[in-house]
Amino acid sequence: MSSNIHIESIEKRYPARGADPEKLVLRAFDFRIRSGELVALVGPSGCGKSTVLNLIAGLDKPTRGAVAFDRPVDAINLSVVFQQPRLLDWLSVQENVGIVLTRSHAALSQQQATVRSLLEKVELPEHANAYPQFLSGGQRQRVSIARAFATTPDVLLLDEPFSALDELTARRLRLLLQSLWLDESRQRPTGVLVTHNMLEAAFLADRIVVMGGTPAEIRDVIQVEIERPRHPDDPALFEVHRRVMEALQSS
Ligand code: ADP
Ligand code: MG
């Protein structure tokens, strides 16, 4: 079951590292993400977007405050997609997707069906037995998206998932993510997308959180009212883009 996420008045300080002094990235950062919602975090590079994502993922601990879900964190099924696909080179495409499924998820035959249907969804069924080094960057990222959905995540975190890809490939993958998001046969997770692409945020998100400053604060929260499925060239996206840019520059 997807879950609300409450980022409860978080402080995050990174200790001094070599010549770099201690850094206060977040102070009393507080935000609530509703169950089943897709929120985009945007803001200048280095403002703390990945820090927020990593704290939600439990990959790092806040100095103060906490991230709360509706249930204890061990009962939350969480998937992360990074900029780099992070596949295992020695496993085939279908093994890379299936590896996240343990015996607790379902019987083997059902797991194989899950993997197969996801590979179809990401348009890679004919590459099921291929190894990652023989795939293009876009194909590899499609495998990592399939892997992220394989466990039916309650929370899906995406950290600049398309920014290493050329624009045409990125556009196809955004459409693919939208179609997985809208797929009624799948549980919709609560999503958090970090991106520096404002049009991508407008295309995918329900709300856009505009961050800025040091320590980072929330400059604006923009509700995207465009109905889904959305079209990547919908002029309404540019109006959202304009509002995000306005919020970013109002400092
Ligand atoms: P963004 O994702 O918005 O580009 P990050 O959250 O990655 O920003 O980083 C925020 C700030 O914290 C940056 O100044 C970065 O250099 C610093 N930072 C990130 N991770 C660490 C770390 N592990 N140790 C020290 N400083 C870090
Ligand atoms: Mg980042």
Structure characterization notes:
The protein is of the alpha/beta class. It has a domain at 1-77 and 195-251: Rossmann fold, CATH 3.40.50. The protein is built from seven helices and nine strands. The protein has helices at 49-57, 93-98, 108-121, 137-150, 167-182, 198-204, 235-249; strands at residues 5-14, 23-33, 38-42, 64-69, 78-81, 155-159, 190-194, 207-212, 217-223. The strands form two sheets. A six-stranded mixed β-sheet has the order 5-6-7-3-8-9, sandwiched between helices. The model has no long low-confidence stretch (mean pLDDT 96). Magnesium ion binds at residues 49-50, 194. Adenosine-5'-diphosphate (ADP) binds at residues 14, 17, 23, 25, 43, 45-51.
Give a short account of the largest sheet.
6 strands, mixed
Biggest sheet strand order reads 5-6-7-3-8-9
Helix and strand element order: EEEHEEHHHEHEHEEH
| Low-pLDDT residue spans | none
Q: Assign the CATH superfamily of the domain at 1-77 and 195-251.
A: P-loop containing nucleotide triphosphate hydrolases
- Structural category is alpha/beta
Overall mean confidence score, pLDDT:
96
Beta-strand fraction estimate: 15-25%
The first-level CATH class of the domain at 1-77 and 195-251 is given as Alpha Beta
Number of strands: 9
Bound molecules: adenosine-5'-diphosphate, magnesium ion
Distinct helical segment count = 7
Task: Say what the CATH topology of the domain at 1-77 and 195-251 is.
Answer: Rossmann fold
